Amino acid sequence: xxxxxxxxxxxxxxxxxxxxxxxxxxxxxxxxxxxxxxxxxxxxxxxxxxxxxxxxxxxxxxxxxxxxxxxxxxxxxxxxxxxxxxxxxxxxxxxxxxxxxxxxxxxxxxxxxxxxxxxxxxxxxxxxxxxxxxxxxxxxxxxxxxxxxxxxxxxxxxxxxxxxxxxxxxxxxxxxxxxxxxxxxxxxxxxxxxxxxxxxxxxxxxxxxxxxxxxxxxxxxxxxxxxxxxxxx
Length: 233
Prior knowledge:
Elements: H1 12-26, H2 35-57, E1 64-68, E2 71-78, E3 88-97, E4 108-116, E5 132-136, E6 139-148, E7 153-163, E8 172-180, H3 196-231
Antiparallel strand pairs: 1-2, 2-3, 3-6, 4-7, 5-6, 7-8
């Protein structure tokens, strides 16, 4: 004689059966994709969206940013970080301490020197413009200068700084590379651009790497994820 189930347990096995059926149903492939792979595919799609956002954001990074010791420096040249030979350009340097506190020119014994590339160590500077305090965006009293590049080409801007009396930051030295385009002024119309080929080459290389690096990262991510998916089979 088979044992009788108590009334309190008469639905124990039916409920378990229903739960098992639900689990088995969820494990069935969705449009040909097994359930255990869905999480990896969602993770892969998330990574792809991140890489795409990096590709879209990268070209918008116009300002030139450097760090030295406990000081960060950002160079911006008007107009639009695209100076032209023979024309006056406004350059400013946003100096900040670690943590984001702005260093005004009044607290910094700063010196700006401009060199034409290529240059040998010890070679005198092409320009040594005087610095003045300027107010730009959220920065007040930061170092600024008016620059007139004599001809198109590549230049290096070197900004050295030491703390003035009462200031507290470490001495720094920033080197910024600047590409100067041909100008429209009369005094530059007959100047031969000896660095044109170098400027174009470096510009093309920068653009190529800006596109290639995210693409290579995406290929690497795809390889790792697909390999892990195959290993989980």
